[in-house]
Design brief:
Length: 466
């Protein structure tokens, strides 16, 4: 590095550019080499006459700044302290699109670390120029500028607002239909990062008439376009029932369900969460997910996916769908979801988060479920902390349904209830007492553990009267 530094001031431009490029490649390799570039006072030297240099040198210098800044917030801060942002912003005004692209890329790598560095990029006056960059004809420049706007917007509502104030939303929205997949990825990401912060920002994104155009992205051949499209919809619906209803009316729920069914792995995750958010808002919105046949694909995610966090999201979404009324819970139970949730919960290989999510989903659904065949399936396998909710539901239904009472005896449900060891005075014991009070005393006694031994004993002790 000590040998490369003097070459930055060489009289031959070609040597200057090659030296800068070499430094960039070294800094790009790992953070130790990037640290060495900072400690060697190379950055001030790189910047000293940047505005007068040719386009090749500017691109190489921006590459060095990007390579140093990408590794950590500390290194990015060192780049900022050397006065690099002002120079990079000047490069954004350069005539050459390659220079703009290199500068935009470096600004993005600095901004992505935290809100403080993003704010420094904003204060340097980069936003209006980045918005101009996404209007340039070059696809590569559009991509990087959109990516940088996304990196700035992600940290806080205030930073996202500065991007919005520069008029970015309208220009980003126009690019959703661009045939370039990599550009669409960045555009959808930027709009997601804006919409996620608040209802007001989400409404501004929706007002840019991105629906139903965004729904076409869910059918895209590029997996990341699908994922980012679903993420954008998720970030909008999570805020309010009104925004969710808007997406439902635009056909968003059906489109997301199709998307979940057509892909695998983490691409499914934002779509799964979107359905959960919609269903969580209200009974009607949850019913919209059910009517659009949203339960089978979520159930398939529980079975097919290997990653615990994807299963956990599917369990959470199903819990949100089933928690509203007996009708909602029945729709989930009929799809045979409950035994799958129970087996995942009881599987020792499941992560702690997955067990918490499946337990909560089971509880949410069971507390509303009056579909007895599904409850009976669980009665024989469920652990004590789940069985409490199952027995509780039977205690609500059996007193009012004679057919169900008869079926409960013939399927072995009553016998199983008598075998449960509940603490005297506990809620579970109360539920069992309620169920037992629905039957004649001799029937309850007949199905109680040990009753056959009592009968045999009476047979032995019986002395016939001849």
């Amino acid at each position: 590095m000590t040998l490369l530094r003097p070459l930055l001031l060489d009289v031959i431009p070609n040597i200057q550019q090659t030296a800068a490029l070499a430094l960039g490649r070294l800094a790009n390799y790992n953070d130790a080499l990037a640290e060495a570039v900072v400690k060697g006072d190379i950055i001030p030297q790189l910047l000293c006459s940047l505005s007068e240099q040719n386009r090749f040198y500017k691109k190489a210098a921006a590459f060095v700044l990007r390579a140093v800044g990408k590794h950590s917030p500390q290194l990015a801060r060192s780049v900022v302290q050397c006065g690099a942002l002002e120079m990079l912003v000047i490069c954004l005004e350069d005539f050459d699109p390659g220079v703009k692209e290199a500068a935009s890329w470096a600004l993005g790598y600095i901004a992505r670390h935290n809100s403080e560095l993003s704010q420094a990029v904003v204060d340097a006056g980069a936003i209006p120029l980045l918005v101009l960059c996404i209007q340039e004809p070059e696809i590569a420049l559009k991509r990087i500028a959109a990516s940088t706007l996304s990196d700035i917007s992600k940290h806080s509502p205030e930073l996202a607002q500065t991007v919005v104030d520069a008029g970015a939303i309208a220009h980003l929205a126009q690019l959703i239909l661009n045939p370039d997949a990599k550009l669409k990825r960045q555009v959808l990401s930027a709009l997601s990062q804006i919409a996620k912060h608040s209802v007001e920002l989400a409404e501004l994104v929706v007002e840019a008439e991105i629906f139903p155009v965004v729904l076409t992205c869910l059918k895209d051949s590029d997996e990341y376009v699908k994922k980012n499209g679903a993420t954008l919809i998720r970030e909008i619906v999570k805020h309010t029932p009104e925004l969710s209803q808007l997406i439902v009316n635009a056909g968003g729920v059906a489109a997301v369900i199709d998307c979940i069914g057509s892909c695998r792995g983490t691409v499914r995750l934002p779509g799964i969460m979107m359905l959960g958010y919609v269903a969580a808002h209200s009974e009607n919105l949850s019913m919209a997910v059910i009517v659009s046949k949203g339960i089978p694909p979520l159930c398939a995610c529980l079975i097919e996916e290997q990653e615990d966090h994807i299963k956990a999201a599917a369990a959470w979404a199903l819990g949100q769908i089933g928690r509203h009324t007996p009708e909602h819970a029945c729709a989930v139970a009929v799809a045979n979801v409950l035994p799958i949730l129970l087996s995942i919960y009881m599987d020792t290989r499941s992560s702690e988060d997955l067990q918490i999510k499946t337990k909560r989903a089971l509880k949410n659904i069971l507390q509303k479920c009056t579909y007895l065949p599904a409850l009976e399936q669980l009665l024989h396998d469920a652990p004590p902390n789940i069985i409490k909710h199952i027995v509780g539901q039977f205690s609500k239904v059996l007193p009012h349904d004679s057919k169900a009472r008869r079926l409960f005896v013939t399927t072995g449900g009553l016998k199983k209830v008598q075998e449960i060891k509940a603490e005297p005075g506990s809620l579970l014991q109360e539920y069992i007492n309620t169920i037992n009070s629905c039957y004649p005393e001799e029937i309850v006694r007949y199905y109680s553990p040990g009753y056959s031994e009592i009968l045999l004993e009476r047979v032995e002790n019986y002395h016939p009267v001849l």
